[in-house]
Description:
By secondary structure, the chain is of the alpha+beta class.
Amino acid sequence: MTDFRIEVRRGDLVESVHRVSVAVTDSAGRLVAEAGDPGLATFWRSAAKPFQAMPLVEDGAAAAFLLGDEELALACASHSSEAKHLHVTDHFLAKIGCLEEDLACGPHPPLGASVARQVREEGITLTPRWSNCSGKHTSMLALARHHGWSSVGYTNPGHPVQQRLLRSVSEWTGLAPDAIGRGIDGCTTVSYHLPLRAMARAWARFGTAQADPPTTLRRAMLTHPDLVAGWDRYDTDVMRALPGRILVKVGAEGVYCASLLDEGLGVALKIEDGDMRTCPLALAGVLQALLGDEYPSDTLRSYAELPVTNTRGGVVGTIRPAGALRFCAP
Length: 330
């Protein structure tokens, strides 16, 4: 096999293979590199959040509610429910005159391993502000209040908020609204179904656009990578390791997206079986292939491979990328 993939090896033998489809494009949508099926259609999940946040800035809601970079970064985030994430959520809600009870997202175990452990050990009762999507939902409430739309049912596909967000996704991906499939995300709102290549184009455009709202949201994410994800999460760690050069956003079910600002490229990948433990390894492998020696391998060593362990903690194998991207002719 020569295509890009994640291999689970026990000793020197391959035990399992996670196939990866990748699209790397420029802002015009031209394929620069690929693996698997770059036209694979899947749900964008949380990797769509910056484009769902665009109307918050474009329509004037961010300015009207005096939202700063912290609130805007959280609007684009899949946060780990750390204390600072909850703090910014509370301030965001207060600025727009809403309460936690107004959030339609339900709680879930924190994405951050240390916070999840703390919740279990202390028996903390989770509420909607603990959702990794609390920033996105607060931004939707802000958009509704700014336009004078009812906040009731703001997550429903037919609500004006969701219609406005669909127009934003259409604009950034270059797909007509009726060409974008829709389902319900884990946080109760709309999720978009579209090809990886369209996702990559949107992320390339996000990294290269010179006007608002993308410049404002870029600044927010680059200034506060700790709010975009959290402690010991690849999104935050790679943005810190390459300051001002990269935007990264995890989705769900094996989706990851990135924008390489200096190169003007967008990346979208899908672990085809939806395996989330291998997502950071896959994106790390793609970014290393694209950046070569400029990729900070030493700083991000923990994302190069994962150990396979036995019941006594002994290392008996590895999980790591294998194969290569196919680079397209100019």
